[in-house]
Amino acid sequence: MNAVAVVGYASADRSLTTSGVETLVPVITAALADAGLGRREVDFWCSGSSDYLAGRAFSFVSAVDAIGAVPPISESHVEMDAAWALYEAYLKILAGEAETALVYGFGKGTAGDLDRVLSLQLDPYTVAPLWPGATSVAALQARLALDAGLFTEDDMARVVGRRAEGAYLCCPLREHDVARVADGAAAVVLAATDRARDLRERPARIAGFAHRVDPQGLGERDLTTVPSAVAAARDAGLDGPVDVAALHAPFTHQELLLRAVVRAGSYLPFGANAMFSAGLSRIGAAAGEVMSGRARTAVGHATSGPALQQNLVCVLEA
Amino acid sequence: MDTLAAPLTIAFDYTRSLGPVLGRFMAGLRERRVLGARTSDGRVHVPPLEYDPVTHEPVTDLVEVSPTGTVVSWTWNARPVEGQPLDRPFGWALIRLDGADTPMLHAVDASELHTGMRVRIRWTPARQGHIRDIECFEPGESDMSGSTGGEPVEIMTTPIRLHYTHTTSTEEDRYLRALEQGRIIGQRCPACRKVYVPPRVCPADGVAPDEVVEVADRGMVTTFCVVNVPFAGQRLTPPYVVAQVLLDGADIPISHLILGVEAADVRMGMRVAAVWRDRSRWSTTPENIDHFEPSGEPDAPYESYAEHL
């Protein structure tokens, strides 16, 4: 069976237009350059995005413009963070249907009221009609963890180098506990390992890769133990600490909940929450640590859904 | 550079079929009763589950729980937004109703909240079998009991309204500003040299366009359709023609109306010219061109538009 490695990564922290196409062109170009791969050498393309984010229908179809689809290409899309598109591309290479793949995610989270838009991923019968907002749902999770004594508000603040003081934004969350909503795009290039060694001296080999989902009902799972992250880490073969981890945690308490699952010598700080590319960026950043030689083992993590409902763990090795 | 941007609201009334479990749950709310789903392990889930997470069998056992419960977790919503249960500051809480094993999320109308707080349902006066039949929760114990009976609710409607700011690309911005001056511009792909109108990233080469090219406000019909079907929001009376118009100087057609001619007389290769609105009404919009109509020039030969079909 083939093994798969990350061989290139690029990202942008802005998106001018609601279509995202103009933002993707330079990001895809940079990722291919990082991998030393030509555009027409990509066997499979896969993207992650959602039309709800910027209110633009079929934005993933427009985004194909950024690829250059003549002659015809092999392409797919997931309505999730592009980390899940990376999983699809990983399987494609494992199955021998492709030797190389480029995965990209994009979104303009600032085009609408993200907190309100994200209400629509809640149960459509009993929760979404209340419009509770992603931050409020996360705050309910944070309080459960605080009440359970898993950590303190000071511990949460320390994740972003702050102290727990000042007014609450959505108690027990303060402004610093909530990652800034950002626009962005990211691209990761994958290759079967035989090919990867031709492309760069030190590819980041994917040693394990898994994703899991918890029940949709907020009352149907223990919001403080993140069962799907535990299961994904186990399925990905994670059985001890890695050198470095990049966790996708839009809230500081979620970073702490996830650190209990993914143990690492150090954690790359999570910057802004660029919806649909942030998770892929975490894997790209973790792979970058391996490709640069700064780390021998690394984990990139992505989350999706309310209160860490879905979790993906990608274990990378030199 | 700030490109043109405009507000955009997308709204849709989602209608959802409920099925046997949620249909009975919603009917219960209409009668001021809360039903939970009892699963094979004896646990009672509120809101109800449709399938047993252990056995994967359909849930059939619905049991009534209390309209009073205990706050398991909470947060404070200082700035309510459109669509939420209350329009003044309120709490969100996970509430475990007496008799249930799982908590449900809802709003609490109280000046302060704490974990362990006892709250009861405040029912909406006019109930219709919807989660919003629970107006919110409020502090206290309930002494009211609901009535029984009522057919299961089959459909629930949830209006969704989302507001965005739609932002144009630099190319779209340039195109719209030219239209405001009565000009139509395209941009050339540096790789394949094709002129795109409106200008855009070349979908064949995946590169941004560069050279700005002014194109004519006349061209030829490559292909067209006759609209015979009425639809909501239609502005013209059928039959009328929507065509692909390849403007002189462009390498990709635009879509527009062909008027001033019987629908039956429109044909491929027909030469057409833009009919602009009155100059006083021009702005940064494609609507500055009201429609196209025949220019009276001889038809273009098939070979001149064959590659656009």
TrEMBL record, chain A:
<dbReference type="InterPro" id="IPR016039">
    <property type="entry name" value="Thiolase-like"/>
</dbReference>
<protein>
    <submittedName>
        <fullName>Lipid-transfer protein</fullName>
    </submittedName>
</protein>
